[in-house]
What we know:
The structure holds 2 protein chains of 2 kinds. By secondary structure, chain A is mainly alpha-helical.
Amino acid sequence: MLRDLKGSIVAIVVLTAVLGLGLPALFTGFSQLAFSSQANGSLLTVNGKVVGSRLVAQSFTKPQYFHERPSATSPPYNGGGTTFANLGPTNPALAKAVKDQAAAILKLEGPYNHGLTIHQIPVDAVTTSGSGVDPDISPAYAQLQSRRVAAVRHLPLSTVQRLIHRNTNGRSLGFLGEPGVNVLKLNLALDKETHK
Amino acid sequence: MSGQGIGQVLLYCALLVALAYPLGLWMARVYTVPRLPFAALENGFLRLVGGRREQSWKSYAKTLLIFSAAFSVVVYGIQRLQAHLFLNPDHLGAVPSHIALNTAASFVTNTNWQFYGGESTMSYLTQISALAVQQFVSAAVGMAVLAAVIRGISRRSASELGNFWMDLYRSMFYILLPLTLVLAVILVSQGVPQTFSGHATAKTVEGVAQTIARGPVALMVAIKQLGTNGGGFFNANSAVPFENPNGLTNLLELLSILLIPAAQVFMFGKMVLQRRHAWMVFAAMFAMFAIGLAIALPSEQHGSQVLRASGVNIIQGHGQSGGNMTDKEVRFGIANTALWATATTDASNGSVSGGHDALTAGGGAVPLVNIFVGEVIFGGVGSGLYGMFFYILIAVFVAGLMVGRTPEYLGKKIEAREIKYAAVGALFVPTVALALTAMSVVTHSGLASIYNPGAHGFTEALYAYTSQTNNNGSAFAGYGATSFSAYFGAIAMYVGRFVPLLAALAIGGSLAAKKTAPVSAGTFRTDGPTFAVLLVGVIVLTAGLMVFPALTLGPIVEGLMH
C-alpha cells in the first residue's frame, strides 16, 4: 500500500514533468520554428494589422461582402467561445431559426436574383455551423451571394466568380473532405480588387 | 449519397486495416520482449517507482487503483489552483469545484466528458499538464490492463500477469508517444496552433474587435484522438478549424480514433498465437461498425424533420453536401461527419466533428447504441478488447450450453467464476447507465440539465449517462452542467471505468492459473465465421435488448414525429 503510494507519487511527478511540461515546451519550440504562421493561428494581416484568421469566421453584415453561415456563439463568430447550437431535429426553436434566416436571405438576395425562392437556398446558409466559426460556406451559397456582391461593387459577375473560384478550398489531396469557399479570404480579395 | 462520400468511407476502412495490422504486431512485441531500444530509460523509471517484479492480478489492480486515485487529486488540484500558477496568459480563474471534480474523474477514467468550454475555462497549464497528461496516462492504463489480461489467457498454471509500471511505461513511450508526435507535426503543418501566447485580437474587416483563442493545441489534439480520450482544447472539439482544419487532418484524426483499438485485436491474435480467432473478432467488430454507419449516414443525408419541412434545398450536389447540416462544418459535409459520429462512439473516444445534439433520430441513435453496448466495436484503447472478452466468454458459454459440454476458450476451461465476472463486466455498466438516467429524469435537479423539449430531451439525459458510465465523453451537448449532473456524472465515470476493469483483471488472473486443455471434437471453434455471428448475436441480445425500451422513449419516438 505505502510502497504503491510512494511509487505513484514519483510516477506522477516524473510523468507530469516529462509529458506535461518538457514535451509541450519542446514541441511548441519546434512548431514555432518550423511552422510559425500555422502555430500562431494562421492570422491574416492587412497593412500590418491583424484582420482575422483564415481558420476563424468573422461577422460580415454589409451588402458588399459575402456573408458567413449562422453562428451560435455569443456574440456570433466568437473565436474565444466556440459552440454548437444544440437544437434537436424536431425542436420548434430550430424551425423558427431556419425560417427567420431563410426570410432574411430572401430579402437580401431577392432583388439581385429574380424569382429566388426558398427552394434555392442551400442548407448551409440557414444552419448554424458546428464550431460557430466555420470559415467556409458551400460553393452553392457563394454562387447565391455572388450577384449581390457584384452589383453592389459594380464589378463584372465574372470577376466575382473568378475570385470565388480562387478562394475555394478544394478537397484535400483532391478527394478528402468537401469543397468550401473561405469567406474572409474571398472578401479580402474583393476589397483588393475594388481598390485596384 | 454520392460516390465521393462512399469512396472516402471505403478508403478509411482500407487504411485502417492496412495501418492497424503492422501496428498490432509491433505492440505484441512491446508487451512481450524483455528488452526494447532505450532500455536504460525504462530501467531508470522502473527503479524510481518500485521495480519490475511481476504482479498477481490483485497486486496489479491495487497499484493501478492507488495510482489513479492519487492522480485524480493532482488533476483536481491544478484546476483549482490555476489562477495562481504559471502559463495562464488569459488570466482564467479557478475552475468551480463541482466542474473540477467532474473533470478530474473524466480525464482519469479516459472519458473526457467536458462540462466546460476549454478555451474559456482551462489555463494552458491545466490543459497541458493536467488534462493532456491524463490523455497519455489513462489511455496507457487501459492498454496495460489489456496486456495483462491477454497474458492471463496465454499463460498456464501461472499466478502473475505482468508488472503494472512496466506495461504503463511501454504503452506510453513505445506506442502512444511516437504516434502522437507524428500526428501532431502533421496537424501543426496544416494549421492547428501550438503556441504559449494568449489569445489574439483582430480588428475585423468591418472594424469590430474579435477574440481568437489559440494555445498549445496540436499536441493535445493528437493524443486525444489516439488515446480514445476525446477531450478537445476547444469547446466545440474537432468541429473547430483550429483542431481540425481540413479534409486531410479529418482523415488522420478519424483514423487515429480506431487505430490502436483495431491494432489491439491483431496484437491479441499474435500474443495468444490465434490469428484466425483474432480475425473473427475483428470481423464481428467491423460488421457492427458497418451496420451503424449504414444507418447513420443515410439518416443524416436525408435531413432532419425541421429542415425537410422548411423548404430549403437539402439535396446533395450542385456545390453543396446537403442533408442535415445543422451544427456541421462545410469542409466535412455529411459523409465525414456521420463517419466520425459512428467511429468516435464505437471507440470510447468521444471527440466530435459536429454537434451530436443536432443529429437526426437515426443519426443520433447509432452513437447511443454504440456506446451502450459497452464500446466493444473496436472500443477504447485496451478497454474495448477487454470489454469484448466479457461478451466472448458469454458467447462461448452459450455455445457450450447448446452442445452440452464444458465451455472452453483458447484451451482454458470456462467455469462459473469466469462467467460471473464476465456477467458483471457486461451488465453492470448498462444497468448503472439506465438507473442514473431514470433518477435524473424524475428529479427536478436532474431535469434542470435538459435543453431540448420532448423525446429529444430524454435522449439528452440517456446519452449523458450512457456516455459517462461507458467513458465515452461525447454528449448531446445541450445537456447542461449543474452540481447534480456534475457529481452524478463523476460517480458514473469512476464506477463505469473501474468495475469492468477489475472484472477483466480478475478473469485474467483466473485464466492464468488454469492448465490448457487439448482441443477435442467437442470444442466449440472460435476461429470460424459461426463464432463471429454468435458473438454479434450475444451483444445484440444482452446490451442491445437492455437499451431498446429506453430507445423507444427517445430516438424512436422522435423518428416517428413530423
